[in-house]
């Protein structure tokens, strides 16, 4: 909460299944906290910090299932997510935005 007493965070769905293909690193805007993810094949989700993978092939994910991957605070420049599959259909991220 800010000094005004207004709640500035809200639940938001980030669905990039149509917008992103294989090899594209998506970087959420600064102030975003990613909590869960969904992807068709768990080995295809990579999480990056300054273009260096920090978590590869999220182990707890099954096919088209949600996985708790967060909280991951996004700074708008270094933290990114990528579907590494060839011909990838994309992925879905859920989280909070304070931007």
From TrEMBL:
Name of the protein in question: Uncharacterized protein
């Amino acid at each position: 909460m800010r000094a005004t007493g207004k709640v500035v965070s809200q639940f938001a769905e980030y669905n990039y299944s149509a917008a992103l293909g294989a090899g594209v690193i998506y970087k959420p805007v600064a102030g975003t906290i990613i909590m869960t993810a969904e992807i068709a094949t768990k080995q295809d989700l990579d999480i990056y910090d300054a273009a260096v993978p920090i978590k590869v092939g999220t182990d707890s994910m099954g096919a088209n299932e949600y996985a708790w991957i967060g909280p991951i605070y996004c700074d708008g420049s270094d933290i990114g997510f990528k579907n590494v599959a060839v011909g990838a259909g994309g992925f879905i991220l859920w989280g909070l935005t304070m931007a």
